[in-house]
Design goal:
The protein has 3 helices and 11 strands, in the order αββββββββαβββα. By secondary structure, the protein is an alpha+beta fold. It is elongated.
Length: about 200
Amino acid sequence: MELWVAVGTGVLALATFALAGISGWNVNKTGKLVSATELLATNAKATIDEIQKDRELAYRPYISWNASLTRTGQSITAGRAYPVNFGRGPVVHGLCCLAWIEPQGGSTYIHHLLTTDLFDLSADSSGGDGLQMSDRAGAMADADVAGNEVTNEGVRVAFCQDQLGNYYRFVPYHPAEIWRPKVGDRPKWIEFYADQFIRLSKK
């Protein structure tokens, strides 16, 4: 009887050892599977990001513009804006803005803003004979909006969207800035552009 108990105990110990080995093998394989899955997910995300960048480059606009304006003292009379789209993609809902301050003595200033109406431009095209700029009473563009300190000399800035729904800001002599919806907080220039978009869309 003791012999059978010893044999049974030995078999049980051997089986336990075998199960432990199998469990260790499974854990090792599972760990490798998890690592492989994580690597696959990382590579897939990198591929998706690369595809998104390629699409954005294919549809990315780039606005450069000048304006014909008349200056009288500290005042600027609305003229015409001449935008050009040097980008590979179309300008959607473009907006050219000119902001300046008019000193009133001491530390008092009047803020002025001229903008075009909303416009579209195809890739590598211009605004033709120019777009009329109008005074936008009640609206103000500060440094956070214009990308430069607003002075009595006036600063220029342009905004638009692309076909993918991304938003752009174009400040002279600076790289174009892009904001993707649902990615980070909305910067102040997006709030300004959205407000002007609503105002001008109602015209």
